[in-house]
Design a protein that fits this description.
Layout lengths: L2 H12 L2 E2 L1 H8 L3 E10 H13 L8 E3 L7 E9 L4 H7 L6 E8 L4 E9 L5 E8 L8 H15 L8 E15 L2 E12 L6 E3 L4 E8 L5 H8 L9 H9 L9 H7 L1 H4 L15
Parallel strand pairs: 1-3
Antiparallel strand pairs: 2-7, 2-11, 3-8, 4-5, 4-8, 5-6, 6-7, 8-9, 9-10, 9-11
Helix pairs in contact: 1-3, 7-8
Length: 279
């Protein structure tokens, strides 16, 4: 078993299980501030023990459990324009930026079409619409939904042409306390639909995401105490940078090197190591 998957499973099994309804009631957070971290398994084990065992104001973090499962398989397809507008907007930290993806929960077959916006204060605002099992992800209804979200939120027209740009697969466990949600992902695989190239993330790392309505979470404080800085890493931008090394610049080569060691030697000579706080 991949070390990160083993660590994820142990952490999830050690926590008190809670159903999806309780997670949504305590920390649905459709509008939130996101921070991401690349955490070695050794640190993750100690971090998870603190997260699920210590007694804070809201009690220890609990683990999402559905039909006896505490970790779940995710498959996402990220869409972008032919000139990669979403990727470059994120790279340059532009306002009024957005990401488009289809998410499939592999264990149940449920599908969601999602538009993730970045607000004025840097918060993430997620809009989603369910997709039927056999519906086209970019069919009439999803395109109408995308157009309505972008027009209402930004006064922008939806892009006419969208391509499948990156596909991702991973395992996720979710931990929750009042107003705080922590996602922990392992065994990340990224695929370029255009070339078929596939890369796996370092099996000794977990991608930890913290979600909160405002101030840093208890998890952020714990990770800072372990010496783990925020990585500014997203599966879309990080994965696409690893799959297409010509896209990497000074904003996130350090995170790409850390997450995808196999791709590190292909980074262009001008790419400078360092981790950005940008999404």
């Amino acid at each position: 078993m991949i070390p990160a998957v083993r660590a994820l499973a142990r952490a999830a099994m050690a926590a008190r299980p809670v159903p999806l309804a309780e997670v949504q009631a305590r920390a649905e957070l459709r509008t939130r501030f996101d921070r991401s971290y690349l955490v070695p398994v050794e640190v993750f084990a100690a971090f998870a023990a603190e997260l699920t065992g210590r007694r804070g104001p809201g009690g220890p973090f609990a683990a999402l459990c559905i039909n006896g499962r505490r970790w779940f398989r995710y498959h996402s397809v990220h869409y972008d324009t032919p000139d990669l507008r979403s990727f470059h907007d994120a790279r340059q930290g532009r306002g009024r930026r957005y990401r488009i993806r289809e998410r499939r929960y592999a264990d149940t077959g449920e599908r969601q079409f999602e538009v993730k916006l970045t607000g004025r204060r840097g918060e993430t605002v997620t809009h989603r619409q369910p997709l039927l099992p056999d519906a086209a992800a970019l069919g009439t209804a999803p395109r109408g939904f995308l157009a309505a979200v972008l027009d209402r939120s930004y006064g922008l027209a939806a892009p006419a042409h969208l391509l499948r740009t990156v596909e991702t697969e991973y395992l996720r466990a979710t931990f929750v306390a009042d107003g705080q949600r922590i996602t922990c992902d392992a065994a990340l695989l990224c695929r370029d639909p255009a070339t078929g190239r596939t890369l796996r993330a370092d099996g000794g790392l977990l991608l930890v995401g913290t979600r909160t309505a405002g101030r840093p979470t208890e998890a952020d404080r714990l990770l800072a105490g372990f010496g783990i800085p925020a990585a500014g890493f997203t599966k879309y931008c990080g994965g696409l940078s690893a799959l297409r090394p010509d896209l990497v610049d000074e904003h996130w080569p350090g995170a790409v090197r850390t997450a995808f060691p196999a791709a590190a030697r292909q980074l262009p000579p001008g790419a400078r190591p360092g981790v950005s706080s940008r999404p």
